[in-house]
Every structure is written in structure tokens, then in C-alpha cells.
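Entry 14. Structure prediction run on the chain below.
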Amino acid sequence: MFGKDDLVDNLSRDLDRARGRRDALASEATTLTAQIAEIEARLSEEKKRRERERVLSEVEAIKTRIKQAAGAFAPVVDGLSRAIEQAAAVVPEARELNSFLVSVATEIDSVLDPLLRELDQRADAVRTGQAALDLPSSAIEAAPIELPKDTNERLLRFPAWLSRDRETDKKDTAESPRSTAA
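Output returned:
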């Protein structure tokens, strides 16, 4: 009977050790699960922070491009306006083109400040986490603007006296002159 008691004692000890290892592993699994959740949360927050930084830097790059383009536009408009004024001495209708140019420059100038303020407001909302801008990662490398191929799609209309159609009208009139001396 002595040997049977040893077997029961050995099996009981093995069972107790196995239960202890199971409990230790369960405790370690719970600890690892908590650590994994914490690391996942930190990873998610870091990804969000980096995305906010990317969007903010792209918004700043867009603002810089707008300011640089506007800064380059003003001298061009000024130079063109002066040249048109000189042309107006020969072609008085050129003043129409000059007033058109001034109106375009004024319109652009009037919308640039609100646009830049709106970009700042959106950037502030991204900074505070109140909004997320969905900018493609290539927003800085904007595609070149394509001009319309069809003349009916033109956004800006030049004065009628500058129209290409007027040149064809002149040719038609030159080919069929009206003679009153007949």
C-alpha cells in the first residue's frame, strides 16, 4: 500500500504544479494582453500625431506656395498694366484690357487673405484634434493646371476688340468691301 500512496502523492503534487503553472501562465497572459493593448493605443496615438504633423506641414507648404505665387503675380500685373497703358496711346481700346487686368488682380487680392485665414483655421482644428483633414500625401506636388482645350470653356473673357473672331471679321470685310462709289 505504501507504493500506491506514493503514486497518489506524486500525482497530487504533479497536479498542483500543473495548476500553479497554468495560473502563472494565465496571469502572464493577462499581463501581456494589457501590455499589448497599451502598446496598440500608443502606436495609434503616434500614428495620429504623425498624420497631423504631415497635414500641418502640407498646409504650411500650400500657404507658402500661394504667398510666393501671389508675390510673383503682383509685379507681373504691374508690368503688364504699364505696358498696356503705353499701348493705349496707340490703341485706345487697350484701356479696356487694363481695367480687365486690374479687376482680375483686385479679385485675386480680395480672396487671398480669406483663403489664407481659412487654411489657418483648418490647421488649428487639426492641431487641437477637432478635425482631420484628408489630404493626399502628394498634395504638395500638385499637378499642373491644364488650360481648357475648347474656347467655350475659357474662364476669362477678353474684351471683344481683342477677340480672335474680330480678326476673321476684319478679313471678311476686307475681302468684300462695300463700295458706295458705284
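The CA atoms of residues 50 and 94 lie 53 Å apart.
Filed with the rest of this week's runs.
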